[in-house]
Amino acid sequence: MKKLFMLAVMALMVFAVQAQTEKKGAVMDFKEKSIDFGDITQGDKVEHTFIFTNNGDTPLVISNVAVTCGCTAPNWPKQPIAPGATGELKVVFNSAGKMGKQNSVVRIYSNASEPIEKVSLISNVLPKGAK
Length: 131
Fold this sequence. Notes:
Keywords: Signal. With 131 residues, the chain is of the alpha+beta class. The protein has one domain: Immunoglobulins (Immunoglobulin-like, Sandwich). The chain has one helix at 2-21, and strands at 28-30, 34-41, 45-54, 62-67, 72-75, 86-94, 100-110, 116-126. The strands form two sheets. Strands 1-3-6-5 form a four-stranded antiparallel sheet, with no helix packed on it. The mean pLDDT is 89.
């Protein structure tokens, strides 16, 4: 019985050590996932740069960035982001033709452990001359 118990304890230790040494791949962690510009005037362009870090153990590769409408333009790094390194995703929102509360969602597709991340630009577009 003692030998069986010791064997079980050793097997558990092996699994625990193996679980700790497994690779986790690329991990994309954003400093912030949304920015609220508050009230802006129709026709204004606002921009924000989202900072992210690859907290994984393999290079992070962004394959695509998709936006909800043509009013939002993203710019992202095309080169792999090394483990521990940071990158920037610059997003510009053009409020021309928009009115009221806006939430422009940007989807980031990558090889990260969470393959689709989202960030958003929030604003309230007022008519010209309303401010």
